[in-house]
Amino acid sequence: MTIRSGTVYPFAALCGQERMKLALLLTAIDPMIGGVLIRGEKGTAKSTAARGLAALLPPLAEGKAAPFVDLPLGATEDRVIGSIDLEAALAEGRASFQPGLLARADQGILYIDELNLLDDHLVEAILDAAASGVNRVEREGRSLTHLARFTLIGTMNPEEGDLRPQLLDRFGLAVAVSGEGDPVTRVALMRACESFERDRDAFAGVWAEAQAALAGRIVHARNALPHIALSRPMQGFIAEICRRNHVAGHRADLAIARAARAHAAWDGRDTVTAEDVTEVAPFALLHRMRGATPDMSPPPPPPPPNQSPESDQPDEDGGEVGSTLSPPPLAEPTGDSARGGAEDKDEVQAIGAAFTPRPLGPTPRDSVLRTGSGRRARSLSASRQGRMVSSTPRRERDDIAFDATLRAAAPYQLSRRAEGPGLAIRIRPEDIREKRRERRVGSFLLFVVDGSGSMGAHRRMVETKAAILSLLLDAYQKRDQVAMVVFRGTGAETVLPPTGSVERAARLLADLPVGGRTPLSAGLVEAARLLDRVERRDPATRPLVLILTDGRANAGLGGGPPHEEALRLAAALGHRFAAARFIVIDTEPPGLIRLDLAGRLAAALAAPCLRTEDLRAEDLVHFAKEFQS
Amino acid sequence: MSLIDPVRPLYPFAAIVGQERLKTALILNVIDPSLSGVLIRGEKGTAKSTAVRALAALLPDIAVVEGCPFQSDPDDLKAMSSEVRARAAAGERLPIVTRRVRVVELPISATEDRVVGTLDLEHALTEGKKRIEPGLLAAAHRGILYVDEVNLLDDHVVDVLLDSAAMGINVIEREGISVSHPARFTLIGTMNPEEGELRPQLLDRFGLCVQVEGLTVPEQRVEVIRRRAAFEADPDAFRLSWAEPTEALRARIVSATALRSQVVAEDEILLDIANRCLATGVDGHRADIVMLKTAKVLAAWAGRDKVVATDLDEAQTMVLPHRLRRRPFEDVFRPDASTATFRAGLDHGKMI
């Protein structure tokens, strides 16, 4: 639903979406819950509800309305966090602080639409302030702290790529929304929207009473909140729920406790009951459970219903995350385990072993992120395209950041003016700052995967998939683009066009079949077509192309023997896309006679060739990373 | 400013051969700008750009506060910049000019600050005061924002475009500037799907979507060449010869615009819409709302004050195709027994 003017759609008039409304109301009652993340498909009134909530908040002590601050995606860091006041600097030569959006949102709502599209460093700064209630500014040699007690509401569409787990964890509550399945509700929704658009003020008038009732109930609940008791058994119950769902850290416990108290207050009770807890627990668990992200099965699965402390179902809980510790559930086997049987479990373990040592653990991940931002720094835009992320005194291009230059010059204006006549503003060469711009799409990974029958032998495909998967995880954290070409049978196909959605890629990978002949040439041609498209779209990209094959080309395009044809095409491909980097991953099974066809392919591409023996996930990830930088 | 050059002679809209669906979609948006735009998908050389540019000549006149860079509407407080609103509140008689609705072109190479607006440096340096230098979104307010090859647009620009298109307000928080101004525009984009898909989020923002193809009837192709040649030989004479159909078209748009607010849709029609959307499996409810609006405008365009089922048939072809959920991969590929393995692997990898 699109609101196209200052008049906000009344919260009370929203049709359906009860869970989302409840989560928003809870955070309005207790802003310390730590914000709400609304995750869901397009066009489900996510933004409308968030904006509507602001109108329900009680006014501040001074009688002013609670602020609702909309953080646009194009916001620069100085405006979010605050910086030197340009006007004061220019007019009076005074360095005074101009508060940013975080200051403006104090005691109100900070709303970020499409939060997952915002730059990670901004999200981190905002979450820091949200958690501590204060904003610390260290800019232009000034340091300052001010209050920033706001309720953070973010919306996101997982199709656009997910937030990193660390960031997800810092939202108090999360709620998944999807469209209403009932045609009658949809009709009611269309009618409401119709009359809202016809006459907004009249519509608001019709709902005024219901709005006032809601607002009154929020105030009442807020006042009651300090007197709500949370008994010891209830605290134990909350801890048990969190333990069962294998959430890391204690944020979930705290969020559930706060939300349960807010829920009791909302219902006008003075004691938290088990119902309060089970009602709000999904909000705190959805984004913290393993497997909740990346979203593997749309719509996001609700957490297992641990209805009460009495109903012990250890089997089901164990089955939720991987059956290494507990026996598989007897009651309702999932479709996959029903098909695969014992062999499936072997595969789980094999991959687990391959992944365990490195490099995705917390400590190595940190270093990954550092190189990630380092890589981003090197891929800073050389052209004047991209967004300004900061300024630098280094002079390289003629892309002057005037605001930063003026800020640098401002403190000296009075003293410089005293030196004699001149321009209104005395700017010296040492004041000049340049813009540092960043382009969002850093790298692009293209997987060219051999899906022919020979790949099925000796479980080669299992290991190949494991390798791809680990690279996908890496791409997920780095927000890379990925694409996948598969060649098998009679031809090649771009099964995954360039996308930022690694979930899609992972889902696709899981179901990737093997069988048929090996049309390697067709695969290379398809890869060239895709690379060409990517290059045209963004000439600055340096794609990383991973060709996973045993090289046994046995179906050509009619240009001679299939294998020779493929080698000729490979040479041309390497030549044509000089900016791209190629890696061939030889999946030839070990045996007495090795044909090393993949090695010849790599030579034709002037690319390194990894053997399947080296194909342990961490080696490949490191290798790829080394090669990218 | 990338306004479409008014001096260059425009090919008359009425003289475009074929492409009925494209023409209808564009006209519907002129009648009801709240349909939020058209995405035109198709290969090169199918009159996409010609049609959009020609549309400018059909657009109605609007009253604008003179000298306002934000195209403030003198009669609507919500469509005014804060400066103009303050002037109106102070009782000032606002100077008004009447001009045609604008088609503002957003070039692919546009940077974020040119689109959103940024600090007016000259003003800051000479006057010691901050002032915003309005961007393309300000210029496009109450008009049409035209993006050729929208799928090649820089990601950041797409993000800010989405932000404003969704809210009808452009919020500028950059480089020491904090301003917001109304930015309600009809977004018209063209794309060639071969060059890559548009992100689903942006796809959904386009109210309507039409697929254009080259004409297949030989007589029509001949007619295209004939008219084009006549236009290029003498644009003014050609336009004159098409003045009458153009005027008729404009008159029909005016009467449909007047009729639109009276069009009603019965409950059965709404239920029909909901069922069509549910059956095709679209995300969210935007499809329902847009389909209802489109059907109403189609009824008005046909001179009726009531929506009928055939309106839905037509509306559906423009509202639903780009909103269908992508075909799940499971349908394309045989489900592999190792699905669980890789899901577990992914979760496992995330947790270590």
UniProtKB/TrEMBL annotation, chain A:
InterPro entries tied to this protein: AAA+_ATPase, ATPase_dyneun-rel_AAA, ChlI/MoxR_AAA_lid, Mg-chelatase_DI-like, P-loop_NTPase, VWF_A, vWFA_dom_sf
Biased composition (Pro residues): 296-307
Annotated organism of origin: Magnetospirillum molischianum DSM 120
SUPFAM superfamilies for this protein: P-loop containing nucleoside triphosphate hydrolases, vWA-like
Gene3D superfamilies membership: Magnesium chelatase subunit I, C-Terminal domain, P-loop containing nucleotide triphosphate hydrolases, von Willebrand factor, type A domain
Organism taxonomic ancestry: Bacteria, Pseudomonadati, Pseudomonadota, Alphaproteobacteria, Rhodospirillales
Source taxon at top rank: Bacteria
Pfam families: AAA_5 (PF07728), AAA_lid_2 (PF17863), VWA_2 (PF13519)
UniProt GO molecular function: ATP binding; ATP hydrolysis activity
Region span, Disordered: 290-395
Identification of the protein by name: VWFA domain-containing protein
Ranges of residues in domain VWFA: 444-585
UniProtKB/TrEMBL annotation, chain B:
Pfam families named among the record's database cross-references: AAA_lid_2, Mg_chelatase
An annotated Gene Ontology molecular function: ATP binding
This enzyme's EC code(s): 6.6.1.1
Pathway: Porphyrin-containing compound metabolism; bacteriochlorophyll biosynthesis
Keywords, alphabetical: ATP-binding, Bacteriochlorophyll biosynthesis, Chlorophyll biosynthesis, Ligase, Nucleotide-binding, Photosynthesis
Enzyme's top EC category: ligase
InterPro entries named in the record: AAA+_ATPase, CHLI-like, ChlI/MoxR_AAA_lid, Mg_chelatse_chII-like_cat_dom, P-loop_NTPase
SUPFAM superfamilies according to UniProt: P-loop containing nucleoside triphosphate hydrolases (SSF52540)
Function description: Involved in bacteriochlorophyll biosynthesis; introduces a magnesium ion into protoporphyrin IX to yield Mg-protoporphyrin IX.
Similarity comment: family membership: Belongs to the Mg-chelatase subunits D/I family.
Name under which the protein is recorded: Magnesium-chelatase 38 kDa subunit
Native source organism of the sequence: Magnetospirillum molischianum DSM 120
Gene name of the record: bchI
